[in-house]
Amino acid sequence: MKFENQPSYSLGRRTLSTKDVAPGEAGTNVTLISQLTLGAINRGRVLQALYDNGPKSRVDLARLAGVNRTTITGIVQPMIEEKLLVEGDAAPSDVKGGKPARPLFFNPDAPMLGAVLLLPGKIQTCLVTLTGEIKAHMKTEFDPLGDRDAFLSVMRETLSSTLSQAPQAPFGIGVASAGMIDSDNGVILAVNLAPVLTGLPLVDLLQEHFSLPVVIDHHPRALLVGDRWFGPGRGLQTFAAIYTGEVLGGAFYIEGKVYRGLAGSGGELGHSVVQIDGEACNCGKRGCWETVAALPWLRREAGRLGLRDPGNITCARLVKEADDGSKAADALLDRYTRNVAFGIVNLQQTLSLNSYVLHGDVAGGGQMAAERVRQHVEQLVMMRPNQEISITVNGIGEGHTALRGAAGLVLSSHLKVVI
């Protein structure tokens, strides 16, 4: 088998190690990593090396993932036996002679991964190959204020139509959902804009119906995984994904691992406070970041300023109208990107993540909007010497990125991979 036209990317990496401490040795502060945890971390790094660099030999994978040659065999061989990976044709020997290297890459005939993106009123489903290709993509709508049985009927019908197009049973189903998610117990705790989903034990319901493993996580966290494996997060060891739309959320990748709080908490960034006693938020509190940096605020301001068709204003439209010479659009764009920057400044001051990938509405404004956000962040943050802050947009598109991230959740669960 030949592998052709595969992209090549550099892989940022951090070497992990364990240290032995002699009995009775006092005053030594050492963090020990269990073999199971170390194995999960190493598998994740090998997968990321393949996603970042394309087909590679065992020797190259060991170097890129930062593991020794003995360890690499123990990592890749089970995946070959499970037909997740396949060996390509042997490369010609170099001038030094020796056994020709055979590159490894994802098996195009391996089972696919089911993926669901669940947002207020909208469902997307698809199949995702191990290399991130989207297949059997379907979209449908549901009543966010309606009947739960009606929602479940639409969900099952749409997902069944997608899964039926898989040539063999998928490894499982990954769900990226809006709202507050208990990822440990598979429950959607609350969705302010879609009460029909509040309290829904979706993982148990889907597992019972489809007889497949199901995992669920917060929508911005799936975007983060999609960024890390397939998008601008490739090679980064620390960054954040920020989503703006009808609501605002985010997720963190810190020192080579997706950050999750208790039961999958964290990432409800839209409800961090940026204005003491500010506007009322859907969550019942005041001054949340979401109240000044999401589409409802933008459209209200567009109406107040007399912009054309304010109910359909977006960041992309503001950028276009600003480019066409509209001073009102340019001024509103500047305020909107500054409001987005406020929350990023708080994150930067707290965590010093330095790299941020924008999704959703503000990402629709492209590099111009991202540059405005970056400029405001640098004006507001306390910069350290030699510090650089990167603000980028994911050009793949929010839907596909989230669906790929949801599929990545399935793959990581199936292989017990740390991501």
Automatic annotation (TrEMBL):
Question: Membrane spanning segments where?
Answer: none
One Pfam annotation reads: ROK
Query: Which SUPFAM superfamilies did the record assign?
Result: Actin-like ATPase domain, Winged helix' DNA-binding domain
Q: Which GO terms describe its molecular function?
A: kinase activity
The entry's keywords: Kinase, Transferase
Xref: InterPro entries: ATPase_NBD (IPR043129), ROK (IPR000600), WH-like_DNA-bd_sf (IPR036388), WH_DNA-bd_sf (IPR036390)
Please list where the region (Disordered) is annotated.
Answer: 1-22
Q: What is this protein called?
A: Putative NBD/HSP70 family sugar kinase
Native source species: Rhizobium loti (Mesorhizobium loti)
